[in-house]
Known about the structure:
Blueprint: E1 25-31, E2 37-43, E3 46-52, E4 55-62, H1 67-77, E5 87-93, E6 98-103, H2 110-114, E7 116-118, E8 126-128, E9 145-146, H3 147-157, H4 163-167, E10 171-177, E11 180-187, H5 190-204, E12 212-215, H6 221-229, E13 234-237, H7 243-252, E14 255-261, E15 264-269, E16 274-275
Amino acid sequence: MQLSVLDEPDHGYLIAPDPARAGLSRSVAGHDEAGRPVDTRVVEERPLTIYLNAREIVTAMTIGDYPEYLALGFLANQGMLSAGEEVTGVEYDEELEVVVVRTAVETDHEAKLQKKTRTSGCAVGTVFGDMMAGLEGLQLPAAELRTSWLYALSHKINRTPSLYLEAGAIHGTVLCRQDRPLVYMEDVGRHNAVDKIAGWMRAEGVGPQDKILYTTGRLTSEMVIKTALMGIPVLASRSGFTAWGVEIANQVGLTLIGRLKGKRFTCLAGENRLVRDADMAVVPEEGRRHRRKGASE
């Protein structure tokens, strides 16, 4: 993909969810509160083991789409792949459920692998090494954020056919530029969805400085850290905040928007970079069909 694709007039997604894709969900028979038989779509989850060269790094539970992007993004976000490091191959074995990322120079992350932090992700993610590594002295670009972009993004993303609307029990993360959503990834854990975005950006050579990251999940410390280390200056969510997440966002100059639903949102970091240009009279309220998780989730 050429970077010029981001400047084309077509406002469609570069990657969008495919709820009908085989293997992502299936119908399960059950009964409702009155004992009546019902068929319900449920999300599939399966293990994916990630190797860096000859070293097994982690086994993640995932819905199984875009495994190569997930592996690349996970390793990059863990600091196991530096920005300038040459990746010579990414090999996925569907039968073994294994991805092997190969680099030109042999890697050694023994010390990092010995220190693990369990994150607050709903699928219980793992962070290796010092969570705050790389944040010291980091200052993100002072990117302008227009409220008209926020409302346009929220309106389109919440109406995009997705596995969430099909089956629920899943998180979505969308890479955007101005009022255009570009790449929409879903997974059982919001960290996996972010890692898929990071992997796509690395594979395609897409820069972060003018991007917005939208997520359906909570704005916790690890979500803010991942976004900051990816170099993305704006993080927006339908959900709420944690205090440490807000502190880190202020520290690195990240614009942090939460509880974005209909006409409402809350900005807890980067208020000085907001341009309130939206005509509130024409901003639609959110319909019941497209409502997602509440701010407390």
